[in-house]
Amino acid sequence: MKKIAVITSGGDAPGMNACIRAIVNTAWQHDLEVIGFRHGFRGIVEDLNVPLHPDDMRLVSQRGGTFLKSSRFPEFREVDVAKKAAQVLDQHDISALVVIGGDGSFRGAHHLNQYWGGQVIGVPGTIDNDLAGTDVTIGFATAVDTAMDAIDKVRETAEAMARVFIIEVMGRHAGFIGLHAAIAAAAEAMILPELEPQPKLAELADGILQARAAFPDSSYVVILSENLWPGGVHELSKNLSKATGVTCHPCPLGHIQRGGRPNAQDRILAMQLGAAAVDAILSGKTAMMIGLEQEHVVHVPLHLTFERDKPLDARLVQLQLGLQGVNITSKTSK
Amino acid sequence: MKKIAVITSGGDAPGMNACIRAIVNTAWQHDLEVIGFRHGFRGIVEDLNVPLHPDDMRLVSQRGGTFLKSSRFPEFREVDVAKKAAQVLDQHDISALVVIGGDGSFRGAHHLNQYWGGQVIGVPGTIDNDLAGTDVTIGFATAVDTAMDAIDKVRETAEAMARVFIIEVMGRHAGFIGLHAAIAAAAEAMILPELEPQPKLAELADGILQARAAFPDSSYVVILSENLWPGGVHELSKNLSKATGVTCHPCPLGHIQRGGRPNAQDRILAMQLGAAAVDAILSGKTAMMIGLEQEHVVHVPLHLTFERDKPLDARLVQLQLGLQGVNITSKTSK
Amino acid sequence: MKKIAVITSGGDAPGMNACIRAIVNTAWQHDLEVIGFRHGFRGIVEDLNVPLHPDDMRLVSQRGGTFLKSSRFPEFREVDVAKKAAQVLDQHDISALVVIGGDGSFRGAHHLNQYWGGQVIGVPGTIDNDLAGTDVTIGFATAVDTAMDAIDKVRETAEAMARVFIIEVMGRHAGFIGLHAAIAAAAEAMILPELEPQPKLAELADGILQARAAFPDSSYVVILSENLWPGGVHELSKNLSKATGVTCHPCPLGHIQRGGRPNAQDRILAMQLGAAAVDAILSGKTAMMIGLEQEHVVHVPLHLTFERDKPLDARLVQLQLGLQGVNITSKTSK
Amino acid sequence: MKKIAVITSGGDAPGMNACIRAIVNTAWQHDLEVIGFRHGFRGIVEDLNVPLHPDDMRLVSQRGGTFLKSSRFPEFREVDVAKKAAQVLDQHDISALVVIGGDGSFRGAHHLNQYWGGQVIGVPGTIDNDLAGTDVTIGFATAVDTAMDAIDKVRETAEAMARVFIIEVMGRHAGFIGLHAAIAAAAEAMILPELEPQPKLAELADGILQARAAFPDSSYVVILSENLWPGGVHELSKNLSKATGVTCHPCPLGHIQRGGRPNAQDRILAMQLGAAAVDAILSGKTAMMIGLEQEHVVHVPLHLTFERDKPLDARLVQLQLGLQGVNITSKTSK
């Protein structure tokens, strides 16, 4: 019986468990045996293996996080370490490895591919959605829902107290969560790494002042992507408070965005991609990521997923810029 | 100043409010005035008009239901009634009407189009997703999340008590909610109108018995679409209990599936389509539905949305059939 | 080392896992060993034992259901079966048994107490809250939240469509869930087993007609306790539709009310009572239930918990009757 | 017709809307007219009055925040400002004022009472629960649920990545939210203002190291009350990282704790206290807060609510200290 392995790697994302279930169950249908290594690439090197059987997959897809656990493991860039992983995989007679993770994990998978003869298949699992070659990544939809729910909550107290909030969301170096959360939560402004030109402090302050003049009784919510403003949300809030004379409250959403039960979209996506990963193995593919583009499963060479940038959907950016502009100016300019 | 009107019609769906916001704000950007009629087509006929301004749209997109209210209004099929609506619209100098609703509402819109000279634009808003010409409808994603959350809850007590549950979900005459909820909740079986051939009682009973033999300690969940099994979920549960000797508990999810705050996917979809509806009006289109296909906004002649059937995604059906088969048989057949 | 056992019995309730955690961790602090039997009393008789250690309790309190599983086991009323259980407990050298469950389970515990020499301690775990001797039972608060959330969802679609809904909630033969859900969801009417006199059909119909006259645009929600109206919620809806000429939609909430992650109140209650159960064992108590009255832990002879009825809080009944009366009549009578 | 007024004041809290509904509906039953002033005491001074009628209260109790809006208004401490408020109240012929808020608001109410002849009644509404004379305050239960849900989410990613998190919760200068959230989320450690002696850095570091040795694969969660550690959660995380050599991630939950739909407990509490406030007015009381002690409504002189400290429940502190100790040490010391 042929044997395949699976790991979850890098930042965990809601839906990873559903993906593992689909891999294990689909493999089982085709008489493939599956083992997992805990804690990602580190777990391969340290041989933290665990057999995976459909019987144990019945109730995992409902849960957040990853029961296989994950880790960041920069040491894997070293040739010796990758070779050690190859050796462990060979000892277990593994013929294919599925890596569920983001761009760092796919660099690792690509690296391993040079020192190991088995097939390597990537499945995009990251809340940040910053992988080229797929419209969506596992965990992104849930993270957006979580951010939106949190912003909705902040909106309620902001509205009750007529306050300005600067809310920092995750996204590493991409604005996907920020953009989608801003639209969904009907934010008054957004600051994302991809915006050209970046909004200046003076403009942001001006938007606040304009809205305060028009709606003195109301809330005002700015969405800020992490890793973007020097000093982060606290510094921006301080600067905006000073520039406007209105207290701007900082609110970093933090790691709640990585947790939570996956929503339906993420579970279904995860199972589609997991099943497709096994199909790709059966048809002999290697060094490929399984993606979803325009609702179709696609195979993308691994290196293309992290060598290219993935742009935001320009139409969604325009949509939000238009809607938020009206939010601010409707009363004053009419 | 040009004036347009908007109604929500038929069964309400989460996201309708976000759609109205996008219509009002986008119209305002282009100097169009917007009025709403409450309670759908009936509200036009009875002239239940209400002016809509961006200032009132700031906090509506977060909320479920439709603040414009909706209704079913079969009388609208009569020529006189449609003519009366046309007259009211003309009295208000309306040049275009946006109808947010499902197939019944689009039949109404198509009907009105024959007796009224203004532009008629449809936006797909129904939890059932049973409209041809668009991949998704406003409210569908939230309804699937709501159904999934409910099934997850039932799963917990089912698992604690080692019980079989037959869970009935909405969908009118289509299996979209059933299919997506079944995948997301990792159901052991599903009965959808589109399955060919339909699963027979004997097969369903056999699945239950097989799983009980393999996992006597565990839960078993069957998803049933409404309007499908004669006598509904109660009759099916009775029949299955008799056929298997195992008590099968009926659980109709009911109208909770229509409520709830819209999730991010529905809010974003609703705003995209709402903004696109105004764009379509500006470019002179009429008798068209605004849809989303493969992530792109499309315009579809209204009559094509209800004259054709919309099939389930066959790949998702296969995915679930495969995964659920493994859930049931993994232990016994190995 | 002294050894104690724990079971969860009867209908599962959110918070049971947190209670088990508190029992195991508290026992461990006092050098008591703990084993669980799966599936309640049946599991004792069939010796389905499983050792329980704090290491395995770290992440259980967040989850709904009961990982020890439960069951209904009417056979336990037979003397031979109870004696068999006593024998198994003795074989394991168990000196005390904690039973987490409702009144049926406490009858079982009381029965066992007559044929077994060890200590028997009950902890009230049932969503129905129908146990005398304690203000609240584990699972009740979460069930009320779940019912309320569901009613809130139904309210949204009811409001959008100006509909009347009759919503059936759980409670076996007690109106606790019904009363608390009715207040929390601002229902227009409620039908609970404890109301004296029971509202008649004519009165219920009258309330609906009065409200429809005053608020023709609005929703109307009646809460009905299960096992109360002949024919249940479907029959009542049919009768009310006929009596009023207004379609009244039935909506049984069903088993979702037993599932779901426990809320904070239930987790904290569960841990208080679980820890107190171990304290009671250490101080030599037996045939006692651990309850919470006016925020204090109390010990109540087991038989008093099921021999007496537990009344609803009359002040809460009056509160809701007053508030709902105003909901219906404010406009008409002013 | 006698006229009463109501304000929400200070930090908003989930449940305030339900409380307003109960006040308005109960007043209406007794032929009292009700007006609200927006934005708390400031709204009285600026005469931002709005009439309140039961018809508008039908759907408010489901919503978070306060539709009357609130504000902090330190100027109210000045005699002239309080006199101005008295004057406005007299102009409106108000005979009684209900203030829903926390200790700052009750100081304001007490102050007003010296310059105004009407009755002044307080209702405890603050998420912090830091008011003497009542076991619970409106908003506290929801805030604890919100904090717990957030910590549960962080726990999932912490568990997947085997990480240590320091999570900062609200509470102003009291540990109620911290304590209840720590129990409910099964935290490994907590730092609350009331703990005597305060845990030292060395002890905290030691707990982390001990647990990492025993459970190297697992998460570790410390709950920190705000306004307690110099430099806050970021400084504490830095110090602990340094002391242990393990990265400790800071996670301030922030203002999401003030938002959200009120849970059932808060809605029911809010309606009880709101109705009791009107009863107190009718029976001639003044300068009193309506509280709930041991499930009974009580009247407490306003000044006693803010002049005394409210201690944590010592039994709950002991419960959590015991349970968390076992979480950390069970494996190592056995």
Automatic annotation (TrEMBL), chains A, B, C, D:
Cofactor: Mg(2+)
InterPro entries: ATP_PFK (IPR022953), ATP_PFK_prok-type (IPR012003), Phosphofructokinase_dom (IPR000023), PKF_sf (IPR035966)
EC number(s) given by UniProt: 2.7.1.11
Phosphofructokinase domain sequence ranges: 3-281
Pathway: Carbohydrate degradation; glycolysis; D-glyceraldehyde 3-phosphate and glycerone phosphate from D-glucose: step 3/4
Keyword Transmembrane helix: no
GO BP terms in the entry: canonical glycolysis; fructose 1,6-bisphosphate metabolic process; fructose 6-phosphate metabolic process
Pfam family membership, one: PFK
Keywords per UniProt: ATP-binding, Cytoplasm, Glycolysis, Kinase, Magnesium, Metal-binding, Nucleotide-binding, Transferase
Key word Metal-binding present: yes
GO cellular component: 6-phosphofructokinase complex
Gene3D superfamilies: 3.40.50.450, Phosphofructokinase domain
MF annotations from Gene Ontology: 6-phosphofructokinase activity; AMP binding; ATP binding; fructose-6-phosphate binding; identical protein binding; metal ion binding; monosaccharide binding
Catalytically driven reaction(s): beta-D-fructose 6-phosphate + ATP = beta-D-fructose 1,6-bisphosphate + ADP + H(+)
Enzyme class at the top of the EC tree: transferase
Cell location: Cytoplasm
Domain of life assignment: Bacteria
Family to which this protein belongs: Belongs to the phosphofructokinase type A (PFKA) family.
Protein's name according to its UniProt entry: 6-phosphofructokinase
Source organism of the structure: Aliidiomarina haloalkalitolerans
Species lineage: Bacteria, Pseudomonadati, Pseudomonadota, Gammaproteobacteria, Alteromonadales
